[in-house]
Amino acid sequence: MNPTIKSKLSPILQKCFEAKASKKLTFADIGKQLGKDEVWVASLFYGQAKPEEADLKKLSVILDIPQQYLTTDLGTQTFFPTRGGLFELPPRDPFIYRLYEIMQVYGLPLKEVVNEKFGDGIMSAIDFTANVEKVKGSDDSTRVKMIFEGKFLPYKKW
Amino acid sequence: MNPTIKSKLSPILQKCFEAKASKKLTFADIGKQLGKDEVWVASLFYGQAKPEEADLKKLSVILDIPQQYLTTDLGTQTFFPTRGGLFELPPRDPFIYRLYEIMQVYGLPLKEVVNEKFGDGIMSAIDFTANVEKVKGSDDSTRVKMIFEGKFLPYKKW
Amino acid sequence: MNPTIKSKLSPILQKCFEAKASKKLTFADIGKQLGKDEVWVASLFYGQAKPEEADLKKLSVILDIPQQYLTTDLGTQTFFPTRGGLFELPPRDPFIYRLYEIMQVYGLPLKEVVNEKFGDGIMSAIDFTANVEKVKGSDDSTRVKMIFEGKFLPYKKW
Amino acid sequence: MNPTIKSKLSPILQKCFEAKASKKLTFADIGKQLGKDEVWVASLFYGQAKPEEADLKKLSVILDIPQQYLTTDLGTQTFFPTRGGLFELPPRDPFIYRLYEIMQVYGLPLKEVVNEKFGDGIMSAIDFTANVEKVKGSDDSTRVKMIFEGKFLPYKKW
Amino acid sequence: MNPTIKSKLSPILQKCFEAKASKKLTFADIGKQLGKDEVWVASLFYGQAKPEEADLKKLSVILDIPQQYLTTDLGTQTFFPTRGGLFELPPRDPFIYRLYEIMQVYGLPLKEVVNEKFGDGIMSAIDFTANVEKVKGSDDSTRVKMIFEGKFLPYKKW
Amino acid sequence: MNPTIKSKLSPILQKCFEAKASKKLTFADIGKQLGKDEVWVASLFYGQAKPEEADLKKLSVILDIPQQYLTTDLGTQTFFPTRGGLFELPPRDPFIYRLYEIMQVYGLPLKEVVNEKFGDGIMSAIDFTANVEKVKGSDDSTRVKMIFEGKFLPYKKW
Amino acid sequence: MNPTIKSKLSPILQKCFEAKASKKLTFADIGKQLGKDEVWVASLFYGQAKPEEADLKKLSVILDIPQQYLTTDLGTQTFFPTRGGLFELPPRDPFIYRLYEIMQVYGLPLKEVVNEKFGDGIMSAIDFTANVEKVKGSDDSTRVKMIFEGKFLPYKKW
Amino acid sequence: MNPTIKSKLSPILQKCFEAKASKKLTFADIGKQLGKDEVWVASLFYGQAKPEEADLKKLSVILDIPQQYLTTDLGTQTFFPTRGGLFELPPRDPFIYRLYEIMQVYGLPLKEVVNEKFGDGIMSAIDFTANVEKVKGSDDSTRVKMIFEGKFLPYKKW
Amino acid sequence: MNPTIKSKLSPILQKCFEAKASKKLTFADIGKQLGKDEVWVASLFYGQAKPEEADLKKLSVILDIPQQYLTTDLGTQTFFPTRGGLFELPPRDPFIYRLYEIMQVYGLPLKEVVNEKFGDGIMSAIDFTANVEKVKGSDDSTRVKMIFEGKFLPYKKW
Amino acid sequence: MNPTIKSKLSPILQKCFEAKASKKLTFADIGKQLGKDEVWVASLFYGQAKPEEADLKKLSVILDIPQQYLTTDLGTQTFFPTRGGLFELPPRDPFIYRLYEIMQVYGLPLKEVVNEKFGDGIMSAIDFTANVEKVKGSDDSTRVKMIFEGKFLPYKKW
């Protein structure tokens, strides 16, 4: 793992990554056992999501890490993730930059289309889900499909 | 329209927006007549896409703007859009910021999941489409669904 | 008005400010007549809120500006404000900087207290209201009281 | 705790956080025993406030940390906190970003309303308090209420 | 006057500068007639201070500009200066940069000395005055003396 | 001491701070014994000034640190401080920010007043002194007085 | 090796560099044995490329590092490089800055020429190769020739 | 043409672009007539190169613009282009960004390979040429080939 | 002249440049007549230096511009140049960037050498001159020689 | 030595600085023995220059450090310095800032003068030397003289 990113993860999360690697598990494998989507599971490993007690119980079995250890750092009532901040902005990695570029090029068109369809408001990034699918293009090429879905929040007037 | 953004659009695009407003057309209306998706149409209006001759012919009718005028600025073989740059970064508008936040919080998890599913590479932002749908949540709330689809490009080794 | 900010407002909003000044109206005066809070009214003048047809009807009378003129720019179904961007960040004006400083110094403590009280989530800045009150301190000094209230949005798990 | 933030806290503050976690205390619990507001207590833990001798005495009991240890780092006459700097700006965490967004979108309207109500001056961020309350919205939803109160300081002329 | 700075001043302030130049008045000259310090007068010309009705009356005579014109832009109850923002930061002009350098090099030592002398708090930049004097050095050289004085504001605990 | 600042001080300076704290000395106390101003002493502790052999001799006694140790790091002919860089810019701490704000708001007025009084040139930040005094305001309030004095350097023509 | 860059490489890559140095191998030497271009090999050493199992097998022999050690960190199905981020931007090193300068000065001309020759689209930086050659100038001087080649990706319309 | 870029070109260059468009000439067409490479010609149009008298003579004929007009602005002995500055950095347009990304990802590997091949020094960006070719990939795909060639400059020792 | 730079010069300075161009004068030509160095003259044209009455008298003759016009904008007792700010930083033009690069690469070595030779202090950039000479290298190549000379200012202790 | 800079030097360079300090050698002393200029020697110590085998041999004797140790890190054919990056930009130290200020204020004038004297091109920062001299001013003051000399590189046309 990239040492800059690694240094931004707490020790317990680094251990989770090591266990995942040594067991040769993908996020999809873990997600299936947890009953959660692979993207959410990856978010959990990167410290961007807060698991519930039940998730940690299962994770403890999947990764073979004592549950108490996981609970102390990820599950207490007094621990809540501080999100973002894993990498510099603008993003340097080409994969993540493409998301940034989409936001730059299509952000305003997407805003206008959503406003016309839904009214004055936003798509929530909190009450939100993200999924990844593999699809075939018309020329039989492999295509990545990302589905973002968030609650529409209309601006309040007061 | 926001004067800062307006100043970044060429005169012909400003005229397109005015015609759209006075005819009370949505991007969806125009898209239906053009045979193009509403998000792509909005991109065209914001100078982020290059139309073909046939698109301009139809647009000329839809917006009631002489075709030649449209062709000169948007359709010549010597004009190609310089994309991006419509707004400051990080984005200031809350709608667009949410896309930026998704990239910040879920960018690395999405990368990992795509890499695990597709191998070492990226989702193209060029051979790419974006769509917006209105869906209902399980609690009957209104939700925004954005579907991003791009060709998977594997890293070349040489 | 500061010329830098003025240049970021559309002509119709500049006219609203001029009418307000020549009629010596405060935002509170206008708010009372509109049936809206003064902070929301000020947001409207700064292009940070979208009025409804009924608001524009009343505003037309209050400011003595033809309603159609207001509707064309602020009220159509194809116009939605692009928010933010009125000033540089970090803010240069001492008043606005104090809000920025509060966010810097107390942002993390406020996050922790809200998380402990409400769980993992955020205070919405969209389904949100802001009010200003004048209160007396224990030493009889004049104090500014700002009340921010927003819907609590819990993080979705999927 | 997020390792980036942790690295910005002095060892004694890290110990305070650990004691709080192992005793499963909230900031509200500690505040009640200290006779202080929970937001101020959280500020103290994040090194953003300076306690008095009496506060440290009580804190020593609450957290079961020898008073002398607390006094040496947090209470001497030659130690004063250097505030701010706990996270990058613009803030990356969605919770804190919402405060930043409020400042961006409503900062200028709030300034104008305060100026109209109080004259030319600012709300102090030093002679200042912040409180958090849980309230119900008209649709029975849960809402976060933040109350910021600061002394009004008029600009001096000379 | 530097065109970049000029573009940030409102037309009435540009006119004040022109009148001052054509009448060959220094800020000290104007200050004497206004009964105000020269630094405050210069602040007023740069849009960084708000004059009272009586100041405008006198200024109208001094600069030979109709009072009503001054009042409309600088004196209404609905106009309040938005301060700062006249130049880029870090400052590019060597004079102003030296103030920035003093803040960089001596800012922390000044903070520590003030904290030790006054306790935990700050020097207000609002309830604040600045004066400039010409003094002689021990080697008979000419020295600039700047005197900054602001109310001490102790941090509130709550 | 704030761990971020601490990490920017050399080990010998960290030791000086510790000795000062354990002996409960203020910068004023040390200054009196050194025959130097307290602000200069604080600058020395923060690595912003270069002491002479004689200063180190006295400092060794005051802080009870072997002189040789001090000389090796702070006093050799091949060591000269690299100034600045102790904190991020714009400054995050409210105390230091106020100096930054004064520079922003009053920097240009101060420049103009100095130019009018002294001609085209600057106030040196090298041949420079800074002092802090406690004064009473007309309303009996406590006020901080900072006196900055620097040689006037006229621009050379060639 | 520059300590800032070194700290951004994982321990296994640091070891690769050490082995390369102690064996006095150039990237060209290694490339010849690997059957890969020297630029791609250098990218691999800097963590900017992902090797295949077969590459690691050969690398293990060339550098005399146990294959398993290389595989664990560089070759697993759950490790994919996060690219970029090795140095600050704008680049500080004069060599790399020249590439940045070429992009600044000739970026727009190159875009226009490619658009005219290929239509609306980009040169991929993923399906991409880079080579370096040593050539002689007409005046017999030594010249560096860099050949960048990437797939042309036309913008999709939808 | 993008209005932001247009505003950074002098009026004579804007006229050159208009003439080129109305005559439907590509940079390759003009280059052939000028006896110069198309990339250099595009650089000239974007104000990034200085033509000689002879170039202007031919350009005057090609574009049907009076030579004197061209000479005054582009050809005098007292005019020299100030290069760079046509767009924001990091670049926002996806085409130009790819060059930036190549520099980010492959900049250090390219440096190392050049150093190993040529010694300690750089590739000049001044004594430099850039060419674009269209080539076929092994899979018959269309590929962009960019050839950068610059004099090798070894670091001087003194 | 580059339109971005032109927009930062006052109208009188733009006129000076036009007169210089139409008269085909170099800065050296003007300098000879003014009795000033060419670099200082160029600084004057770029608004970075303040001329005296006598300089303006001569300049009026050299450029054939009425003296009063020059005096009003460049010579009054109430006008002083605000220096810097003519271009973005880091500089985009390759010529100016090389000065920036020298400062980056050799700045610290130059500081150390000056400190060792002169003691703790700086080279003034105010009591400062800059000259340019054309010299021959040992290989008969043409070399640029820049000579910077400034007063040494030792740090004051107080 | 400043800990921030120290952390950017490799261990062998830190050792060189220590040896230099304990032997009380200046860069001029070392330069004389090496037969190199003191500025180049200081560059070498700061990792900004690459020594040859012969330089290391002599340096080994001068500093009493085993030659092999020096050669391994500074002299191999596979080590080349990555220059720049020793300090933040804009520079924080007043000495280095003055060079930055000179570039800001006199950069464009110097460019114009060089262009007029040499034609369209730059002064190389690679085929470049820098020297420092101590001179007397006409008023007997001590002045720093810096002499920068670099090869003139004319822009290539192609």
Question: How would you describe this structure to a colleague?
Answer:
Ten copies of one chain form a homodecamer. With about 160 residues, chain A is α+β, with helices and mostly antiparallel strands. Chain A folds into two domains: about 5-75, 434 Repressor (Amino-terminal Domain); about 95-155, Cyanate lyase, C-terminal domain (Cyanate Lyase, Chain: A, domain 2, 2-Layer Sandwich). Chain A has seven helices and two strands. Chain A has helices at about 5, 10-20, 25-35, 40-45, 55-65, 65-75, 95-120, and strands spanning about 120-135, 140-155. In chain A, strands 1-2 form a two-stranded antiparallel sheet. In chain A, β1 (about 120-135) and β2 (about 140-155) form a beta hairpin. In chain A, α3 crosses α4 and α5 crosses α6 (about 65-75). The longest helix of chain A is centred in the C-terminal third of the chain and has 25 residues, at about 95-120. The radius of gyration of chain A is 18 Å and the shape is globular. The mean pLDDT of chain A is about 95. The interface between A and B is large, with 68 and 67 residues. Chains A, B, C, D, E, F, G, H, I, J: GO terms for molecular function: cyanate hydratase activity; DNA binding. Chains A, B, C, D, E, F, G, H, I, J: It is an enzyme of class 4 (lyase). Chains A, B, C, D, E, F, G, H, I, J: Keywords: Lyase. Chains A, B, C, D, E, F, G, H, I, J: Catalyzes the reaction of cyanate with bicarbonate to produce ammonia and carbon dioxide. Chains A, B, C, D, E, F, G, H, I, J: It catalyses: cyanate + hydrogencarbonate + 3 H(+) = NH4(+) + 2 CO2.
